[in-house]
Amino acid sequence: MTEHQLPDYRTLPADVAERMEQIKQRDCVLEIDHVGKVFAQKRHQTVALEDIEFGVHRREFVCVVGPSGCGKSTLIRILAGLEETTTGRILVDGKPVNGPGPDRGMVFQKYTLFPWLDVCRNVMFGIEMGGTERAEARRQAMQWLQVVGLEHFATSFPHQLSGGMQQRVAIARALAARPRVLLMDESFSALDAETRLKMQNYLMEIWRKIDITIVFITHDLDEAIYLADRILVLKPRPGRVEEVIEVPLSRPRRAAQMMSDEFLATKAHLEGLIRSFGDNAEETDEGADDFTMPLLTLVTDKAE
Ligand SMILES: Nc1ncnc2c1ncn2[C@@H]1O[C@H](COP(=O)(O)OP(=O)(O)OP(=O)(O)O)[C@@H](O)[C@H]1O
């Protein structure tokens, strides 16, 4: 099939359309209610987010994509309660949130485990913070380690684990506090491609087993399409919702689907959207295009 024959990404196969209908009938666990964020500096203001309105349904998997500077980090920090909104509000299960809370768990990009605690104690940390006594916290931690397949590493320390394993512990620790929503901020972007795919599959397996709603920020369009039920596309300056895409892929997802017409059409559409924001992109790379590298070698023969 040639490129111009690719199916319209909006055409959902019947099973996916039915699943989307079911998801939409569920309550919204997380509501982003007309959220705006302005960073005021001495000389100017940056409108990082403007009037973001979006609801995430129970057990839905939403990915947020957009070019650098479109407000992805600001949005997830607001959802986590680490940043205040300028306008609008965030609701979890219909209740406005002010600041961080146990109803929202977070997994960051870099490994954030406590290096002086073993794996089990790292997972116990969030449970004990909730007031659970130690023996029960240990029992629950072991259960979560089983969920992420690391029960045999309970007494290992973070530095003894690979990057992927450390992120699995971070996921277990976040889930152990029994949040309603799991917020993931570029959580797999420090991993190599193979480990990343494994982690994506692990995450979807875990998500299928438990009552958790996921919001996942990523730069990687393949990752967004592979994981999400819906993709929220943000455009920069100011950060606004450009489009919400319903991913036309059946579940359970398999890596082979990345070569399907539906996947490729969705990716082509997303790439086109993000390319169209070009003129508004973040200015951090200013000058990169006309940068000329000075010649730092004396070898100038024709074997270049
Ligand atoms: N603390 C801050 N003070 C001032 N401006 C900020 C602050 N944090 C973010 N911004 C600005 O808000 C806008 C959105 O930034 P944000 O980091 O949320 O974007 P992003 O999409 O996460 O970018 P990236 O993909 O590069 O991480 C940018 O213009 C950024 O410069």
Automatic annotation (TrEMBL):
Pfam families per UniProt: ABC_tran
Gene3D superfamilies: P-loop containing nucleotide triphosphate hydrolases (3.40.50.300)
ABC transporter domain boundaries: 30-261
Record keywords, A-Z: ATP-binding, Nucleotide-binding, Transport
InterPro entries: AAA+_ATPase, ABC_transporter-like_ATP-bd, ABC_transporter-like_CS, ABC_transporter_ATP-bind, P-loop_NTPase
Gene Ontology MF terms in the entry: ATP binding; ATP hydrolysis activity
CDD domains (UniProt xref): ABC_NrtD_SsuB_transporters (cd03293)
Origin: domain of life: Bacteria
Similarity-based family: Belongs to the ABC transporter superfamily.
PANTHER family xref list: ALIPHATIC SULFONATES IMPORT ATP-BINDING PROTEIN SSUB, TAURINE IMPORT ATP-BINDING PROTEIN-RELATED
Protein name: ABC transporter
